[in-house]
Write a structure and sequence with these properties.
By secondary structure, the chain is α/β, with parallel strands linked by helices. It has eight helices and eleven strands.
Length: 246
């Protein structure tokens, strides 16, 4: 390990990731996103904006036998994803708005994405280039939604995690033919407004829209001690690699 990298354990050590010591570092969100994907062995999965591989490798640890592809625009993060994944994931360095032709000719059973959270027309850019590329939009959020839908097979599922305040943009950006939309709000503590949402939609889905009760991440009204206080369901996802069913 070089001085500018750390090796971090996810899912109780089942996934080990090299990450930059300074810059964008994977946290809880990609792990929750991966847990929301109801994939089965033999299916194909595309991760748009895969970073160092956190989401797709957590999914791979839970569901064996998947065909996995990740797209990452930053070459240094793509290289780390390849290092972390070995031969388990095909990692392509590309912008989601300009995917290679061979990838544009493929479709997947599942597409997952954790797009940048901040529209820089209304927020300040980060000083670190890696952190800025992960958090600040270059392509609009609607483009991420459109590309995710386009890369799906008929009856395939798209899965997105994002800030709750941007849910209207996500819902409004789904192209025609996307249905069976479900939204799982994520709330830090009981009684608080949701800060994140996981959105799932199905290509050619016909199911009614579902807004689920919030998933509360932490026990208690506030953080009172220097120890983790995840709710049992969330702890099972983060530490044991359990699925997040909704």
């Amino acid at each position: 390990m070089t001085d500018n990298l750390t090796r971090d354990a996810f899912l109780g050590g089942r996934v080990q990731l090299y990450q930059p010591r300074v810059g964008y570092r994977a946290g809880v969100d990609p792990v929750l996103l991966a847990a929301s994907v109801a994939a089965t062995p033999g299916q194909s999965v595309l991760d748009l904006g895969c970073g160092v591989g956190a989401a797709i490798l957590c999914l791979s640890a839970r569901v064996p036998g998947l065909s996995l592809t990740g797209v990452e625009v930053q070459e240094d993060y793509a290289m780390l994803a390849r290092r972390n994944a070995g031969d388990r994931v095909e990692v392509i360095t590309a912008d989601i708005s300009d995917l290679p032709l061979d990838l544009r000719q493929r479709q997947f059973d599942h597409v997952l994405t954790n797009p940048p959270y901040f529209n820089r027309a209304a927020s300040r850019a980060a000083f670190d280039a890696g952190r800025e590329a992960a958090h600040g939009e270059s392509a609009p959020l609607a483009e991420w939604v459109r590309v995710a839908a386009k890369r799906l097979k008929p009856k395939g599922y798209a899965h997105i995690i994002h800030r709750a305040e941007r849910l209207p943009e996500i819902l409004g950006a789904w192209p025609g033919g996307m249905g069976s939309i479900e939204v799982l709000p994520l709330s830090a503590r009981a009684g608080r407004m949701a800060e994140r949402v996981i959105v799932r939609a199905r290509k050619n889905g016909r199911g009614a829209f579902k807004l689920h009760a919030p998933l509360v991440l932490h026990l208690g009204a506030c953080h009172t001690r220097d120890a983790e206080d995840y709710c049992p369901q969330v702890k099972a996802v983060l530490r044991d690699g359990a699925a997040l069913e909704f």
